[in-house]
Protein backbone atom coordinates (compact mmCIF):
# COMPACT_ATOMS: atom_id res chain seq x y z
CA UNK A 1 0.00 0.00 0.00
CA UNK A 2 3.00 2.31 0.50
CA UNK A 3 3.89 1.82 -3.17
CA UNK A 4 0.25 2.44 -4.13
CA UNK A 5 0.12 5.68 -2.16
CA UNK A 6 3.34 6.95 -3.80
CA UNK A 7 1.85 6.12 -7.20
CA UNK A 8 -1.38 7.87 -6.26
CA UNK A 9 0.58 10.99 -5.33
CA UNK A 10 3.27 11.03 -8.05
CA UNK A 11 1.67 9.04 -10.89
CA UNK A 12 4.85 6.99 -11.46
CA UNK A 13 7.88 5.78 -9.57
CA UNK A 14 10.88 6.47 -11.78
CA UNK A 15 13.43 4.76 -9.59
CA UNK A 16 12.56 2.42 -6.77
CA UNK A 17 15.98 3.08 -5.23
CA UNK A 18 14.66 6.50 -4.24
CA UNK A 19 11.78 5.04 -2.24
CA UNK A 20 11.89 5.68 1.46
CA UNK A 21 11.75 2.45 3.41
CA UNK A 22 8.50 2.66 5.39
CA UNK A 23 9.12 3.10 9.09
CA UNK A 24 12.71 4.26 8.57
CA UNK A 25 14.49 7.32 7.25
CA UNK A 26 16.53 5.20 4.88
CA UNK A 27 16.20 4.88 1.12
CA UNK A 28 15.91 1.44 -0.45
CA UNK A 29 19.46 1.47 -1.73
CA UNK A 30 20.56 -2.10 -1.19
CA UNK A 31 19.90 -4.94 -3.58
CA UNK A 32 18.11 -6.74 -0.75
CA UNK A 33 15.71 -3.80 -0.39
CA UNK A 34 15.04 -3.89 -4.11
CA UNK A 35 14.30 -7.62 -4.15
CA UNK A 36 11.85 -7.17 -1.28
CA UNK A 37 10.18 -4.39 -3.27
CA UNK A 38 10.05 -6.67 -6.32
CA UNK A 39 8.06 -9.21 -4.27
CA UNK A 40 5.38 -6.58 -3.61
CA UNK A 41 5.50 -5.38 -7.23
CA UNK A 42 4.91 -8.94 -8.47
CA UNK A 43 1.86 -9.38 -6.34
CA UNK A 44 0.42 -5.97 -7.38
CA UNK A 45 1.20 -6.62 -11.03
CA UNK A 46 -0.57 -10.00 -10.91
CA UNK A 47 -3.71 -8.04 -9.99
CA UNK A 48 -3.07 -5.58 -12.86
CA UNK A 49 -2.90 -2.81 -10.27
CA UNK A 50 0.50 -1.69 -11.47
CA UNK A 51 2.98 -2.31 -14.27
CA UNK A 52 6.68 -2.37 -13.61
CA UNK A 53 9.89 -2.60 -15.65
CA UNK A 54 13.09 -4.08 -14.38
CA UNK A 55 16.20 -1.93 -14.77
CA UNK A 56 19.70 -3.19 -14.50
CA UNK A 57 22.73 -1.22 -13.41
CA UNK A 58 26.25 -2.47 -13.03
CA UNK A 59 27.43 -1.68 -9.54
CA UNK A 60 30.71 -2.21 -7.76
CA UNK A 61 31.00 -4.13 -4.57
CA UNK A 62 34.15 -4.32 -2.42
CA UNK A 63 35.95 -7.62 -2.03
CA UNK A 64 37.02 -8.69 1.50
CA UNK A 65 40.39 -7.05 0.84
CA UNK A 66 38.69 -3.89 -0.41
CA UNK A 67 36.58 -3.81 2.74
CA UNK A 68 39.65 -4.22 4.90
CA UNK A 69 41.27 -1.19 3.26
CA UNK A 70 38.04 0.82 3.55
CA UNK A 71 37.83 -0.04 7.27
CA UNK A 72 41.47 0.10 8.33
CA UNK A 73 43.21 2.38 5.83
CA UNK A 74 45.12 1.96 2.59
CA UNK A 75 48.47 0.20 2.36
CA UNK A 76 50.26 3.53 1.81
CA UNK A 77 48.65 5.01 4.92
CA UNK A 78 49.81 2.01 6.89
CA UNK A 79 53.37 2.50 5.64
CA UNK A 80 53.25 6.19 6.56
CA UNK A 81 51.95 5.37 10.05
CA UNK A 82 54.71 2.82 10.63
CA UNK A 83 57.78 4.90 9.74
CA UNK A 84 59.34 7.49 12.10
CA UNK A 85 59.30 11.22 11.36
CA UNK A 86 62.39 12.70 9.77
CA UNK A 87 65.01 13.45 12.42
CA UNK A 88 63.20 11.41 15.12
CA UNK A 89 64.98 8.09 15.49
CA UNK A 90 66.39 5.59 13.05
CA UNK A 91 64.94 5.45 9.52
CA UNK A 92 62.87 2.26 9.13
CA UNK A 93 64.54 -0.42 6.97
CA UNK A 94 62.26 -2.15 4.35
CA UNK A 95 62.64 -5.52 6.10
CA UNK A 96 61.62 -4.02 9.42
CA UNK A 97 58.65 -2.31 7.73
CA UNK A 98 57.51 -5.68 6.39
CA UNK A 99 57.79 -7.04 9.91
CA UNK A 100 55.41 -4.39 11.22
CA UNK A 101 52.66 -4.13 8.59
CA UNK A 102 53.14 -7.39 6.64
CA UNK A 103 54.95 -8.09 3.40
CA UNK A 104 51.93 -7.58 1.15
CA UNK A 105 50.98 -4.20 2.59
CA UNK A 106 54.59 -3.02 2.65
CA UNK A 107 55.22 -3.95 -0.97
CA UNK A 108 52.21 -2.10 -2.39
CA UNK A 109 52.23 0.72 0.14
CA UNK A 110 55.84 1.94 0.09
CA UNK A 111 55.84 2.93 -3.60
CA UNK A 112 52.48 4.68 -3.27
CA UNK A 113 53.51 6.50 -0.09
CA UNK A 114 56.69 7.70 -1.84
CA UNK A 115 54.73 8.82 -4.89
CA UNK A 116 52.32 10.74 -2.64
CA UNK A 117 55.32 12.45 -1.05
CA UNK A 118 54.34 11.04 2.37
CA UNK A 119 57.66 9.31 3.04
CA UNK A 120 61.19 9.46 1.69
CA UNK A 121 64.34 7.41 1.63
CA UNK A 122 67.09 8.24 4.14
CA UNK A 123 70.08 5.95 3.83
CA UNK A 124 68.67 2.42 3.59
CA UNK A 125 65.44 3.28 5.43
CA UNK A 126 62.23 5.32 5.24
CA UNK A 127 61.17 8.43 7.13
CA UNK A 128 57.95 10.51 7.22
CA UNK A 129 58.10 13.67 5.19
CA UNK A 130 54.75 15.15 6.26
CA UNK A 131 53.19 15.35 9.69
CA UNK A 132 49.65 14.54 8.48
CA UNK A 133 48.02 12.78 5.56
CA UNK A 134 44.59 12.42 4.07
CA UNK A 135 43.99 8.80 3.09
CA UNK A 136 42.06 9.55 -0.11
CA UNK A 137 42.18 5.89 -1.22
CA UNK A 138 40.33 4.88 1.92
CA UNK A 139 37.79 7.66 1.46
CA UNK A 140 37.22 6.61 -2.15
CA UNK A 141 36.77 2.94 -1.22
CA UNK A 142 34.19 3.90 1.38
CA UNK A 143 32.40 5.88 -1.26
CA UNK A 144 32.43 2.90 -3.63
CA UNK A 145 31.03 0.74 -0.85
CA UNK A 146 28.18 3.15 -0.21
CA UNK A 147 27.27 4.20 -3.74
CA UNK A 148 28.42 1.29 -5.87
CA UNK A 149 30.45 3.61 -8.07
CA UNK A 150 33.64 5.70 -7.91
CA UNK A 151 33.49 9.50 -7.67
CA UNK A 152 36.39 9.75 -10.13
CA UNK A 153 34.85 7.48 -12.72
CA UNK A 154 35.38 4.32 -14.68
CA UNK A 155 39.18 4.50 -14.92
CA UNK A 156 39.49 4.32 -11.14
CA UNK A 157 36.92 1.53 -11.01
CA UNK A 158 38.88 -0.48 -13.56
CA UNK A 159 41.96 -0.04 -11.39
CA UNK A 160 40.09 -1.31 -8.31
CA UNK A 161 38.89 -4.33 -10.29
CA UNK A 162 42.41 -5.05 -11.48
CA UNK A 163 43.70 -4.85 -7.92
CA UNK A 164 40.87 -7.22 -6.87
CA UNK A 165 39.55 -4.66 -4.39
CA UNK A 166 36.14 -4.47 -6.06
CA UNK A 167 33.99 -6.61 -8.36
CA UNK A 168 31.20 -5.67 -10.73
CA UNK A 169 27.70 -6.86 -9.81
CA UNK A 170 24.35 -6.53 -11.51
CA UNK A 171 21.97 -4.44 -9.49
CA UNK A 172 18.25 -4.56 -10.18
CA UNK A 173 15.87 -1.72 -9.60
CA UNK A 174 12.48 -0.86 -11.01
CA UNK A 175 10.28 1.76 -12.55
CA UNK A 176 6.60 1.53 -11.73
CA UNK A 177 3.41 2.93 -13.21
CA UNK A 178 -0.29 2.50 -12.57
CA UNK A 179 -2.05 -0.48 -14.07
CA UNK A 180 -5.65 -0.77 -15.41
CA UNK A 181 -6.90 -2.04 -12.02
CA UNK A 182 -5.06 0.62 -10.04
CA UNK A 183 -6.61 1.45 -6.72
CA UNK A 184 -5.28 2.73 -3.46
CA UNK A 185 -6.18 -0.34 -1.40
CA UNK A 186 -5.46 -3.99 -2.04
CA UNK A 187 -8.60 -6.00 -2.38
CA UNK A 188 -8.53 -9.55 -1.10
CA UNK A 189 -8.82 -11.81 -4.14
CA UNK A 190 -10.53 -15.17 -4.15
CA UNK A 191 -8.27 -18.14 -4.78
CA UNK A 192 -10.96 -20.82 -5.07
CA UNK A 193 -14.32 -21.07 -6.69
CA UNK A 194 -16.40 -22.64 -3.93
CA UNK A 195 -19.72 -24.44 -3.82
CA UNK A 196 -21.06 -21.62 -1.63
CA UNK A 197 -20.14 -18.98 -4.25
CA UNK A 198 -21.93 -20.97 -6.93
CA UNK A 199 -25.00 -21.48 -4.77
CA UNK A 200 -25.30 -17.83 -3.67
CA UNK A 201 -24.28 -16.34 -7.01
CA UNK A 202 -21.41 -14.49 -5.29
CA UNK A 203 -19.07 -15.76 -7.98
CA UNK A 204 -20.48 -13.16 -10.38
CA UNK A 205 -18.97 -10.25 -8.46
CA UNK A 206 -16.01 -12.05 -6.94
CA UNK A 207 -12.52 -11.08 -8.03
CA UNK A 208 -10.23 -14.00 -8.55
CA UNK A 209 -6.55 -14.24 -8.14
CA UNK A 210 -4.75 -14.92 -11.41
CA UNK A 211 -3.09 -18.22 -11.95
CA UNK A 212 0.64 -18.00 -11.59
CA UNK A 213 1.91 -20.33 -14.25
CA UNK A 214 5.47 -19.50 -13.30
CA UNK A 215 5.12 -20.81 -9.74
CA UNK A 216 7.07 -23.92 -8.99
CA UNK A 217 4.94 -26.83 -7.84
CA UNK A 218 5.43 -28.71 -4.62
CA UNK A 219 8.18 -31.26 -4.91
CA UNK A 220 6.66 -34.69 -5.50
CA UNK A 221 8.08 -37.57 -3.56
CA UNK A 222 9.33 -40.58 -5.45
CA UNK A 223 7.77 -44.01 -5.38
CA UNK A 224 8.87 -46.58 -2.84
CA UNK A 225 9.07 -50.33 -3.02
CA UNK A 226 6.96 -52.27 -0.55
CA UNK A 227 9.04 -54.47 1.78
CA UNK A 228 7.55 -57.57 0.14
CA UNK A 229 8.85 -56.39 -3.23
CA UNK A 230 12.30 -55.78 -1.80
CA UNK A 231 12.46 -59.28 -0.36
CA UNK A 232 11.01 -60.70 -3.58
CA UNK A 233 13.83 -59.06 -5.51
CA UNK A 234 16.37 -60.74 -3.23
CA UNK A 235 14.74 -64.14 -3.83
CA UNK A 236 14.67 -63.56 -7.57
CA UNK A 237 18.35 -62.72 -7.49
CA UNK A 238 19.16 -65.92 -5.60
CA UNK A 239 17.23 -67.93 -8.19
CA UNK A 240 18.89 -66.16 -11.12
CA UNK A 241 22.30 -66.64 -9.50
CA UNK A 242 21.58 -70.36 -9.34
CA UNK A 243 20.59 -70.55 -12.99
CA UNK A 244 16.79 -70.62 -12.64
CA UNK A 245 14.29 -69.24 -15.14
CA UNK A 246 11.04 -67.57 -14.06
CA UNK A 247 7.76 -69.36 -14.77
CA UNK A 248 4.67 -67.52 -15.98
CA UNK A 249 2.22 -67.18 -13.07
CA UNK A 250 -0.56 -64.99 -14.46
CA UNK A 251 -3.33 -67.51 -13.72
CA UNK A 252 -4.69 -66.26 -10.40
CA UNK A 253 -7.92 -67.96 -11.39
CA UNK A 254 -7.03 -71.54 -12.11
CA UNK A 255 -8.99 -74.66 -12.93
CA UNK A 256 -9.30 -77.31 -10.25
CA UNK A 257 -7.70 -79.54 -12.84
CA UNK A 258 -4.34 -77.75 -12.69
CA UNK A 259 -4.61 -76.70 -9.06
CA UNK A 260 -5.51 -80.19 -7.79
CA UNK A 261 -6.14 -83.06 -10.26
CA UNK A 262 -2.93 -82.74 -12.25
CA UNK A 263 -1.11 -82.77 -8.91
CA UNK A 264 -2.73 -86.07 -7.93
CA UNK A 265 -4.74 -84.42 -5.17
CA UNK A 266 -7.74 -86.74 -4.66
CA UNK A 267 -11.11 -85.20 -5.40
CA UNK A 268 -12.16 -86.01 -1.84
CA UNK A 269 -9.19 -84.18 -0.31
CA UNK A 270 -10.23 -81.82 2.51
CA UNK A 271 -8.15 -78.97 1.03
CA UNK A 272 -10.62 -78.82 -1.84
CA UNK A 273 -13.51 -78.02 0.45
CA UNK A 274 -15.09 -74.64 0.29
CA UNK A 275 -13.77 -73.58 3.71
CA UNK A 276 -10.21 -74.01 2.45
CA UNK A 277 -10.48 -72.95 -1.19
CA UNK A 278 -12.16 -69.99 -2.85
CA UNK A 279 -14.32 -71.19 -5.76
CA UNK A 280 -15.29 -68.84 -8.55
CA UNK A 281 -18.99 -68.88 -9.39
CA UNK A 282 -18.87 -66.92 -12.63
CA UNK A 283 -17.85 -68.26 -15.08
CA UNK A 284 -19.01 -71.62 -13.80
CA UNK A 285 -16.45 -73.80 -15.55
CA UNK A 286 -12.99 -73.68 -17.07
CA UNK A 287 -12.12 -74.75 -20.60
CA UNK A 288 -11.63 -78.52 -20.65
CA UNK A 289 -7.95 -79.61 -20.51
CA UNK A 290 -6.16 -81.44 -23.36
CA UNK A 291 -8.38 -84.56 -23.82
CA UNK A 292 -5.56 -87.14 -23.88
CA UNK A 293 -3.88 -85.67 -20.81
CA UNK A 294 -7.23 -85.38 -19.06
CA UNK A 295 -7.82 -89.04 -19.79
CA UNK A 296 -4.42 -90.00 -18.34
CA UNK A 297 -5.03 -88.00 -15.17
CA UNK A 298 -8.51 -89.52 -14.79
CA UNK A 299 -7.04 -92.98 -15.17
CA UNK A 300 -4.27 -92.55 -12.61
CA UNK A 301 -6.77 -91.22 -10.06
CA UNK A 302 -9.47 -93.84 -10.62
CA UNK A 303 -7.74 -97.10 -11.55
CA UNK A 304 -4.05 -96.26 -11.15
CA UNK A 305 -1.12 -96.88 -13.44
CA UNK A 306 2.61 -96.24 -13.60
CA UNK A 307 3.02 -98.69 -10.72
CA UNK A 308 0.31 -97.00 -8.61
CA UNK A 309 -3.05 -98.40 -7.65
CA UNK A 310 -4.68 -94.94 -7.74
CA UNK A 311 -7.32 -93.68 -5.32
CA UNK A 312 -10.14 -95.86 -6.73
CA UNK A 313 -12.58 -93.25 -5.50
CA UNK A 314 -15.50 -91.58 -7.27
CA UNK A 315 -14.37 -89.15 -10.02
CA UNK A 316 -16.20 -86.26 -11.61
CA UNK A 317 -15.17 -84.39 -14.75
CA UNK A 318 -17.26 -81.49 -13.54
CA UNK A 319 -15.06 -81.27 -10.45
CA UNK A 320 -11.97 -80.84 -12.64
CA UNK A 321 -13.53 -77.89 -14.45
CA UNK A 322 -14.40 -75.84 -11.39
CA UNK A 323 -12.60 -72.54 -11.19
CA UNK A 324 -10.65 -71.66 -8.06
CA UNK A 325 -8.41 -68.87 -6.88
CA UNK A 326 -5.21 -70.86 -7.01
CA UNK A 327 -4.22 -72.17 -3.60
CA UNK A 328 -0.56 -72.64 -4.45
CA UNK A 329 1.88 -71.72 -7.23
CA UNK A 330 2.48 -75.45 -7.69
CA UNK A 331 -0.43 -75.17 -10.16
CA UNK A 332 1.83 -73.01 -12.32
CA UNK A 333 4.71 -75.43 -11.78
CA UNK A 334 2.46 -78.25 -13.06
CA UNK A 335 1.70 -76.26 -16.22
CA UNK A 336 5.42 -75.62 -16.75
CA UNK A 337 6.28 -79.31 -16.26
CA UNK A 338 3.55 -80.36 -18.69
CA UNK A 339 5.10 -78.02 -21.23
CA UNK A 340 8.48 -79.71 -20.71
CA UNK A 341 6.78 -83.06 -21.31
CA UNK A 342 5.08 -81.79 -24.50
CA UNK A 343 8.40 -80.49 -25.76
CA UNK A 344 9.94 -83.89 -25.09
CA UNK A 345 7.08 -85.57 -26.95
CA UNK A 346 7.62 -83.31 -29.97
CA UNK A 347 11.41 -83.37 -30.15
CA UNK A 348 12.30 -86.66 -28.47
CA UNK A 349 14.79 -84.69 -26.38
CA UNK A 350 14.27 -84.02 -22.71
CA UNK A 351 15.57 -80.64 -21.58
CA UNK A 352 16.50 -80.42 -17.86
CA UNK A 353 14.99 -77.38 -16.20
CA UNK A 354 15.37 -75.16 -13.16
CA UNK A 355 12.28 -73.02 -12.74
CA UNK A 356 10.98 -70.64 -10.11
CA UNK A 357 8.03 -68.40 -9.42
CA UNK A 358 7.08 -65.84 -6.81
CA UNK A 359 3.44 -64.83 -6.88
CA UNK A 360 0.15 -64.54 -5.10
CA UNK A 361 -1.99 -67.44 -3.85
CA UNK A 362 -5.34 -67.52 -2.04
CA UNK A 363 -6.71 -69.57 0.82
CA UNK A 364 -10.06 -69.40 2.50
CA UNK A 365 -8.57 -69.05 5.95
CA UNK A 366 -9.53 -67.20 9.11
CA UNK A 367 -7.52 -63.98 9.05
CA UNK A 368 -5.39 -63.35 12.12
CA UNK A 369 -2.09 -61.73 13.09
CA UNK A 370 -0.08 -64.16 10.99
CA UNK A 371 -2.55 -65.29 8.31
CA UNK A 372 -4.15 -63.52 5.40
CA UNK A 373 -6.55 -64.94 2.83
CA UNK A 374 -3.97 -64.12 0.21
CA UNK A 375 -0.21 -64.29 0.37
CA UNK A 376 2.79 -64.94 -1.83
CA UNK A 377 4.61 -68.17 -2.46
CA UNK A 378 8.20 -68.58 -3.49
CA UNK A 379 8.55 -71.83 -5.37
CA UNK A 380 11.39 -73.63 -7.07
CA UNK A 381 11.28 -76.73 -9.26
CA UNK A 382 14.21 -78.75 -10.65
CA UNK A 383 13.71 -81.43 -13.30
CA UNK A 384 16.46 -83.76 -14.49
CA UNK A 385 17.21 -87.40 -15.01
CA UNK A 386 18.14 -89.35 -11.90
CA UNK A 387 17.72 -86.65 -9.24
CA UNK A 388 17.64 -88.01 -5.68
CA UNK A 389 16.36 -86.89 -2.31
CA UNK A 390 20.01 -86.08 -1.50
CA UNK A 391 20.02 -83.61 -4.38
CA UNK A 392 16.91 -81.95 -2.97
CA UNK A 393 18.41 -81.66 0.52
CA UNK A 394 21.73 -80.38 -0.82
CA UNK A 395 19.92 -77.90 -2.96
CA UNK A 396 17.88 -76.61 -0.01
CA UNK A 397 21.07 -76.11 1.94
CA UNK A 398 22.65 -74.01 -0.82
CA UNK A 399 19.46 -72.05 -1.43
CA UNK A 400 18.70 -71.14 2.16
CA UNK A 401 22.35 -70.41 2.96
CA UNK A 402 22.12 -67.62 0.42
CA UNK A 403 19.46 -66.00 2.56
CA UNK A 404 21.56 -66.39 5.70
CA UNK A 405 20.03 -69.61 7.09
CA UNK A 406 22.85 -72.11 7.60
CA UNK A 407 21.41 -74.82 9.83
CA UNK A 408 18.52 -76.76 8.33
CA UNK A 409 16.51 -79.69 9.64
CA UNK A 410 14.08 -81.77 7.63
CA UNK A 411 10.98 -83.47 8.92
CA UNK A 412 8.97 -86.06 7.01
CA UNK A 413 5.66 -84.60 5.89
CA UNK A 414 2.81 -85.33 3.53
CA UNK A 415 1.74 -83.73 0.25
CA UNK A 416 -0.52 -85.59 -2.18
CA UNK A 417 1.85 -84.72 -5.03
CA UNK A 418 5.25 -85.43 -3.45
CA UNK A 419 6.79 -88.55 -1.97
CA UNK A 420 8.85 -88.29 0.07
CA UNK A 421 7.85 -84.87 1.38
CA UNK A 422 9.95 -82.82 3.76
CA UNK A 423 9.13 -79.87 5.93
CA UNK A 424 12.11 -77.56 6.19
CA UNK A 425 13.13 -76.02 9.51
CA UNK A 426 15.89 -73.52 10.03
CA UNK A 427 17.58 -72.23 13.14
CA UNK A 428 16.86 -68.58 12.89
CA UNK A 429 19.80 -66.42 14.00
CA UNK A 430 17.58 -63.40 14.74
CA UNK A 431 14.77 -65.28 16.45
CA UNK A 432 17.11 -67.77 18.16
CA UNK A 433 14.86 -70.72 17.58
CA UNK A 434 13.95 -73.34 15.00
CA UNK A 435 11.24 -72.12 12.65
CA UNK A 436 9.43 -73.88 9.85
CA UNK A 437 10.48 -72.17 6.65
CA UNK A 438 9.08 -74.29 3.88
CA UNK A 439 7.76 -77.47 2.40
CA UNK A 440 9.36 -79.64 -0.25
CA UNK A 441 9.43 -83.04 -1.89
CA UNK A 442 10.05 -85.28 -4.88
CA UNK A 443 7.07 -85.10 -7.24
CA UNK A 444 5.20 -88.36 -7.55
CA UNK A 445 5.30 -90.51 -10.70
CA UNK A 446 1.47 -90.33 -10.60
CA UNK A 447 1.86 -86.65 -11.38
CA UNK A 448 4.83 -86.70 -13.78
CA UNK A 449 4.21 -89.76 -15.92
CA UNK A 450 0.68 -88.91 -17.13
CA UNK A 451 2.23 -85.69 -18.42
CA UNK A 452 4.51 -87.78 -20.61
CA UNK A 453 7.84 -87.06 -18.93
CA UNK A 454 10.41 -89.90 -19.35
CA UNK A 455 10.33 -92.44 -16.53
CA UNK A 456 13.82 -91.64 -15.24
CA UNK A 457 13.18 -87.91 -14.98
CA UNK A 458 12.87 -86.85 -11.35
CA UNK A 459 11.51 -83.52 -10.26
CA UNK A 460 11.97 -81.98 -6.87
CA UNK A 461 10.37 -78.83 -5.65
CA UNK A 462 9.96 -76.63 -2.64
CA UNK A 463 7.86 -73.74 -1.59
CA UNK A 464 7.80 -71.09 1.09
CA UNK A 465 5.89 -67.93 1.77
CA UNK A 466 7.29 -64.51 0.95
CA UNK A 467 5.54 -62.88 3.92
CA UNK A 468 7.19 -64.95 6.62
CA UNK A 469 10.84 -64.09 5.85
CA UNK A 470 9.80 -60.47 5.20
CA UNK A 471 8.15 -60.19 8.63
CA UNK A 472 11.21 -61.71 10.28
CA UNK A 473 13.54 -59.38 8.35
CA UNK A 474 11.60 -56.27 9.30
CA UNK A 475 10.74 -57.39 12.82
CA UNK A 476 7.01 -57.21 12.08
CA UNK A 477 4.78 -59.53 14.12
CA UNK A 478 1.35 -58.56 12.85
CA UNK A 479 0.88 -59.23 9.15
CA UNK A 480 -1.72 -56.46 8.97
CA UNK A 481 1.03 -53.88 9.45
CA UNK A 482 2.77 -55.34 6.39
CA UNK A 483 -0.12 -55.91 3.99
CA UNK A 484 -3.53 -54.33 3.64
CA UNK A 485 -5.37 -51.11 4.28
CA UNK A 486 -3.93 -50.55 7.77
CA UNK A 487 -0.36 -50.20 6.53
CA UNK A 488 0.88 -46.64 7.04
CA UNK A 489 2.21 -45.37 3.72
CA UNK A 490 5.21 -43.72 5.32
CA UNK A 491 6.28 -47.02 6.87
CA UNK A 492 6.62 -48.29 3.32
CA UNK A 493 8.51 -45.18 2.23
CA UNK A 494 10.89 -45.47 5.17
CA UNK A 495 11.43 -49.23 5.12
CA UNK A 496 15.08 -50.12 4.87
CA UNK A 497 16.66 -51.96 1.98
CA UNK A 498 17.17 -55.72 2.35
CA UNK A 499 20.22 -57.78 1.52
CA UNK A 500 20.29 -61.45 2.22
N1 LIG B 1 2.73 -76.37 -2.78
C1 LIG B 1 3.34 -76.55 -1.51
C2 LIG B 1 2.66 -75.61 -0.51
O1 LIG B 1 1.68 -75.04 -0.82
C3 LIG B 1 4.82 -76.29 -1.55
C4 LIG B 1 5.55 -77.32 -2.34
C5 LIG B 1 5.99 -77.02 -3.60
C6 LIG B 1 5.79 -78.58 -1.84
C7 LIG B 1 6.66 -77.93 -4.36
C8 LIG B 1 6.49 -79.52 -2.58
C9 LIG B 1 6.91 -79.19 -3.84
O2 LIG B 1 3.07 -75.49 0.60
From TrEMBL:
<dbReference type="GO" id="GO:0005829">
    <property type="term" value="C:cytosol"/>
</dbReference>
<dbReference type="GO" id="GO:0000049">
    <property type="term" value="F:tRNA binding"/>
</dbReference>
<keyword id="KW-0648">Protein biosynthesis</keyword>
<dbReference type="GO" id="GO:0005524">
    <property type="term" value="F:ATP binding"/>
</dbReference>
<dbReference type="Pfam" id="PF18553">
    <property type="entry name" value="PheRS_DBD3"/>
</dbReference>
<keyword id="KW-0067">ATP-binding</keyword>
<keyword id="KW-0963">Cytoplasm</keyword>
<keyword id="KW-0479">Metal-binding</keyword>
<dbReference type="InterPro" id="IPR006195">
    <property type="entry name" value="aa-tRNA-synth_II"/>
</dbReference>
<keyword id="KW-0436">Ligase</keyword>
<dbReference type="GO" id="GO:0046872">
    <property type="term" value="F:metal ion binding"/>
</dbReference>
<feature type="domain" description="Aminoacyl-transfer RNA synthetases class-II family profile">
    <location>
        <begin position="230"/>
        <end position="488"/>
    </location>
</feature>
<dbReference type="InterPro" id="IPR045864">
    <property type="entry name" value="aa-tRNA-synth_II/BPL/LPL"/>
</dbReference>
<dbReference type="Pfam" id="PF01409">
    <property type="entry name" value="tRNA-synt_2d"/>
</dbReference>
<dbReference type="InterPro" id="IPR040725">
    <property type="entry name" value="PheRS_DBD3"/>
</dbReference>
<dbReference type="InterPro" id="IPR004529">
    <property type="entry name" value="Phe-tRNA-synth_IIc_asu"/>
</dbReference>
<dbReference type="GO" id="GO:0006432">
    <property type="term" value="P:phenylalanyl-tRNA aminoacylation"/>
</dbReference>
<keyword id="KW-0030">Aminoacyl-tRNA synthetase</keyword>
<dbReference type="InterPro" id="IPR002319">
    <property type="entry name" value="Phenylalanyl-tRNA_Synthase"/>
</dbReference>
<protein>
    <recommendedName>
        <fullName>Probable phenylalanine--tRNA ligase alpha subunit</fullName>
        <ecNumber>6.1.1.20</ecNumber>
    </recommendedName>
</protein>
<keyword id="KW-0547">Nucleotide-binding</keyword>
<keyword id="KW-0460">Magnesium</keyword>
<comment type="similarity">
    <text>Belongs to the class-II aminoacyl-tRNA synthetase family. Phe-tRNA synthetase alpha subunit type 2 subfamily.</text>
</comment>
<dbReference type="GO" id="GO:0004826">
    <property type="term" value="F:phenylalanine-tRNA ligase activity"/>
</dbReference>
<dbReference type="GO" id="GO:0009328">
    <property type="term" value="C:phenylalanine-tRNA ligase complex"/>
</dbReference>
Amino acid sequence: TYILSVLQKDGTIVDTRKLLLPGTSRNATSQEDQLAIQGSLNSLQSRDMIKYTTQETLMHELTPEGNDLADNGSHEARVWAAVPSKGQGEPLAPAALQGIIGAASAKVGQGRAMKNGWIGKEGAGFVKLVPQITDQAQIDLRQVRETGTHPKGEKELADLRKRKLAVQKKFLWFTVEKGPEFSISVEKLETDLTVEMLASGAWKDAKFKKYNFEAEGLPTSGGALHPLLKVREEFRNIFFEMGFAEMPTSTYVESAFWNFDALFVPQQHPAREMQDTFYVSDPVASMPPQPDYHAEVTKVHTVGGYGSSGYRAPWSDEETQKLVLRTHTTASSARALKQLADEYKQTGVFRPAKLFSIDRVFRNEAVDATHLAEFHQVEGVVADRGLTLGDLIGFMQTFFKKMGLEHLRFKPAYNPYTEPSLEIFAFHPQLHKWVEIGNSGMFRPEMLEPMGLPKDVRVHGWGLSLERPTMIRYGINNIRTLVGHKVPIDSVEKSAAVRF
